[in-house]
Structures are given as structure tokens and as C-alpha cells.
Amino acid sequence: MGAQKSVHAGKAKIDFNVDFTHRLCAAMMVHSFRNSGTGSPLSLIVGSLCIKHPNLFGKSEKLDLLWDKGLSDSNILIAYRKPRPEWLAQHSFVIQHVTSPEVGIHGVPIDNFSKTGSGGVNLCRFSAGLDLDEPGTSNWTTKTSIKFEHVRPVNDDGRSINRDPHGYSVTSRQSPIFFIFYFQICVDKFVYLHKSYKCSGNFHDNMVVLKQESRFAKANDHSFTRFSLQIEQGIPLMSKWLIFNRFKFAASKGLKVGPGFLLASLTGGSIVGDIAPYQAFAIGGVGSVRGYGEGAVGSGRSCLVANTELTFPMNQMLDGVVFCDCGTDLGSGRYVPGNPSLRHGKPGAGVGVGYGVRFKFPMGHFQVDYALNAYQQKTIYFGFSNVAS
After folding, report:
1. In a 3-state reduction of DSSP, which class is residue 348?
2. Most exposed of 18, 21, 83, 97 (fewest Cβ within 10 Å)?
3. For the whole model, what pTM was predicted?
4. Per CATH, which fold does 2-385 belong to?
């Protein structure tokens, strides 16, 4: 379900691409069980429009425009890249506006935590900044970015809000700069400071974020190793802007075991400093702990998630898979402003096990996963991967 068209503009060629199938298939896997509160199959349909200009001003400048639109989600991305020598970092100027339901933190777990319903909080994010892609060396790649971000929570009617339906703040809390040092020295001091904070009462948050991401990848015919590390620093150019430090890592190892393939991964992170509830780590859902709705396991200042999956061939077109996922907020849920994890009864830790099949077709892979969580609630996931455009 898509269409492609090329239009010549002078010496340049502009490529148009409209696609429904790929986005719809991804949505069927990810959104149908995380946004159960939508109640309409039409909410799963997301259209994608992509426009690429490879030679904007006649000097190989590239301009990309991307628009994804669903009933409850919207993403507009504009990226402009100037040509650079191979030994210099690639500069990209990026402007993005995203609107989406915040179900990972403010969503309400239902059906023994197997699904997550809407909590009535949505986020409008506007960001503008510069991306620097450093030239790759050996197996390492590095990307640095600095961006201004404006985050505005809204309700389901699109009106700006500063509190959730329960009366708790959805924007940041203002804290002294020495908060980070208290957190590192003594947890008891941190709890005291946390309780003494007052909500900013603002209907939005502003921040300048310096982010660096490093990736390592190495593979051969029998195994692969991947590792990534992200570090974000909030820079308080204004007194009321957020200051924080957030890091997240992901490590995975794949190994051929007889006719099968074993994949193990570990993901974790932590954040200190000023924090709005939407910045917390949401645990649970596809890509985290299967068998739970998105964020239904917990939402905290820290997280640790482990996944193990064994894939084995059944015939030329069919693979079987067994998996085990587990995750925890490391007891940090109570340190998120408003403690949404406790208010929604999230356990803070969870385990999901299950099995599935992968059907291999020329156009892509169709997959079905059956997961069981710690509360004996069953969930089935459907989806396509590697779908050709």
C-alpha cells in the first residue's frame, strides 16, 4: 500500500514516497496492545509521506521532509545536510515536531498488566538543533547533537495542561543545582530534597540538550556483538530550564548454537537532576518486557531490562522462537515526581516468557509471539519486519 513518484526540478530530482503498509504493519505489532484504550482499529493506521531533494541549491545539499500521521500520533521532521569531506563530521540541521500519547508513564495498566490504557496525557515536542556524525573508525561510530527542546503536555482535546487527571504535575520540578551532589552522596538526603520540591506549575518545559551517542558493532558468520551508549546533559542557559544528566546503554550478543541462534541483550540507564515525569524510564511492552503493556512493569529514574531469545529453524519458510524477558526499575519509581508508578499499582519488576513463530516471505517476515506475564495473563503480538518499501 504505497506509491512512489519522482519529479524533475531543474537539474535536481525530487523523490516522493507515500507509504501505509510498512507503518501499518509496525503499528499492528507495537500499538495494538499498548494503546488498548483507543478502541478503534483505525487508530492503528499511520500514513507516511517522505519528500527528498538531493540537490537543493545546486551544491549537493540534501533536504528531507518526513510526515507520519495517525489518529493520535503525528511526526514532522525536516533535515538539511551540507556535503562535507569524508574526514570531517557530517552536519545536519534538524527540526522536528512530535505529538503522541504518553502511555508509558501516565497510562493505566489493565487486564493484569497485559495492556495499557490511555491516561489522558499527550506530549507535544518541538526540537531544533544540529547533528554531527563523526567519521567511523574501525567498528565504532559516534554522533553528537545539541538541540533546543520545548515540551508541552496536552489533554485528549489538545488543551495545554500542567497536571494529570489525578491532580499531579506533568511538568518538571524546580531543584537547586546541588541536587545532583546530594543524590550521589546520600539517598536519604535525596528523599528529603525530593519531598521539599514544589512543582513549577508551568504548562511547558524548555531545555537545551547536549547528547553524545557511541556505537560498536562487530559481526561474522557465527556471532555478532553490539554496544551503544547515550549520554544526555541538560544545559541551563536560563534559570528555569532543566538541568539533568541521563545515560542509557544497550548491549547485545548473538551466537549460533547448532542449527539455532541465541540472542541475549541487556539495557539499562539512569537520570539525575531535574526530571519531569515523562523523562522517566518506562518498563514493559514490545522491545522491553513482553507480556506487559507499555510501561506496565514500572517507570523510574533508573531501569534494567534483560532479554533472551532462541530462534531455531523448522523448515525453509518457518522459524520457531522461545524467549524470556525481565525488567526492573531498581526501586527508583518513588523518586519520579508524583510517583505515577505507585499510583497506578505498577509492580516495579516483571518477568515475561513465551514462544512464537517467524514466517519468511520474499517481501518480509511475518511474526507471531505468545507471551505470559507473572500474573498468568496471556498476550499475543502480531507484526511484520523487514518489509520492502
Report:
1. coil
2. 83
3. 0.81
4. Porin (2.40.160)
